[in-house]
Amino acid sequence: MTSPAPLNVLFLCTHNAARSILAEATLNHLGQGRFKAYSAGSQPRDNQQPHPLALEVLRRAGIATEGLRSKGWDEFGRPDAPPMDLVITVCDNAAGETCPYWPGQPATAHWGYADPSSVTGTPEQQLDAFRQTLLAIRRRLELLVNLPASAVDRLALQDSARALAKD
């Protein structure tokens, strides 16, 4: 018996440099083959590099960072893009923007997190902001990956993802 194909999850944020990158890497780390995560932004960083502090907190948490890059969400609207099962906005700016049409009408949810890159202060305070954001994202993703199969089937996925936003 073959295992079912993983559910494709796309995390959206404006710049695809911090929160969505943290979510992508963390879900791929925790996903146990049930999930395949991607991330993108409406206005990705020009140099296509995630925020250095996002990469640092991921590495310190033992989460792989290879291949992570800032990308535009139009990449995932192309005919050759993987079909998404769930699209989650992780910043309030992206939640309010008009998103492109996603083939297959995936489930959608909004999980808002404060932008850790907007924190000023000492380098340690800035790193701690990224660490706290990673912990908050990880807690929610641990709940997602531990949902029973019936809660993540294609029909129940949107309700499940939106309910996790309330935790």
TrEMBL record:
Signal peptide: none annotated. Coiled coil: none annotated. CDD domains: LMWP_ArsC. This is Arsenate reductase ArsC. Pfam families: LMWPc (PF01451). The keyword Transmembrane helix does not apply. Residues 7-147 form the Phosphotyrosine protein phosphatase I domain. Keywords: Arsenical resistance. The keyword Ribonucleoprotein does not apply. InterPro entries: Ptyr_pPase, Ptyr_pPase_sf. Gene3D superfamilies: 3.40.50.2300. GO terms for biological process: response to arsenic-containing substance.
